[in-house]
Amino acid sequence: xxxxxxxxxxxxxxxxxxxxxxxxxxxxxxxxxxxxxxxxxxxxxxxxxxxxxxxxxxxxxxxxxxxxxxxxxxxxxxxxxxxxxxxxxxxxxxxxxxxxxxxxxxxxxxxxxxxxxxxxxxxxxxxxxxxxxxxxxxxxxxxxxxxxxxxxxxxxxxxxxxxxxxxxxxxxxxxxxxxxxxxxxxxxxxxxxxxxxxxxxxxxxxxxxxxxxxxxxxxxxxxxxxxxxx
Length: 230
Description:
alpha/beta, two-stranded parallel ribbon
């Protein structure tokens, strides 16, 4: 089955995000733009997670729909996590997307992050002291179906290849867990053909999403066609 998908958005609980970024409004605007698969991002925030549990119901394996409202739009469960830590005598500031297969798995992720001292109440995109590799290791121990995708990889301060705080390769960042990185998000700073010049990206999916913080400025050019088997 084919979907027009945008899998990087933010809820009203993230900094500098419109208060209108709520699930029914996201779905309504997505339907106007012809998008039929969104991410219900920021699942680490306690209030947003409560909203997700109250407003979503499962409609397929790992895919959710609204209990009330726009029924043509489906949701995946994800969050963006900001890892800030020191490694190799350098301060690293890396953003990663997590995709979880169910609300039950999300609850396990949140509990484990809290157990490790992460303040999930502060922001919908929480800041954690875990390295990207340790974050991936943590979630894979919870459920092997969880997917981690490095965000906007060329952003200088928050991308895995960023000149200010990033790495020179996925292998350098994730070590022996590199094989679990199936794709990367480019943002709007490059295109697939540019990224395919990097050998380690040749075998990985090249993704680009809107990272939308408001609905009226949600750019149509950030719509991408992907295929998912249900």
